[in-house]
Amino acid sequence: MAYQASTSAPIWLNKGDNAWQMIAATLVGLQSVPGLVILYGSIVKKKWAVNSAFMALYAFAAVVICWVTWAYKMSFGQRLLPFWGKAGPALGQKFLLGWATLPETAQYDSNGVLETAVAQPFYPMATMVWFQCVFAAITLILLAGSLLGRMNIKAWMMFVPLWLTFSYTVGAFSLWGGGFLFHWGVMDYSGGYVIHLSSGIAGFTAAYWVGPRLKADRERFPPNNVLMTLAGAGLLWMGWAGFNGGDPYSANIDSSMAVLNTNICAATSLLVWTLLDVIFFNKPSVIGAVQGMITGLVCITPGAGLVQGWAAIVMGVLSGSVPWFTMMIVHKRSKLLQKVDDTLGVFHTHAVAGLLGGILTGVFAEPELCNLLPVTNSRRSVEDPEENKSSNRLQVVLHHWMERGDHHYYLPCDKIGGPGCRTMNYLSGMMLFMVRRRMRCGVMERSNWKSEGEQVEQRAILIPMLYRGELVLCAPWNKGEPRTQAVIGAVQGMITGLVCISPGAGNYINYP
Question: Once rounded to an integer, what is the mean pLDDT over residues 115-144?
Answer without folding.
Answer: 90
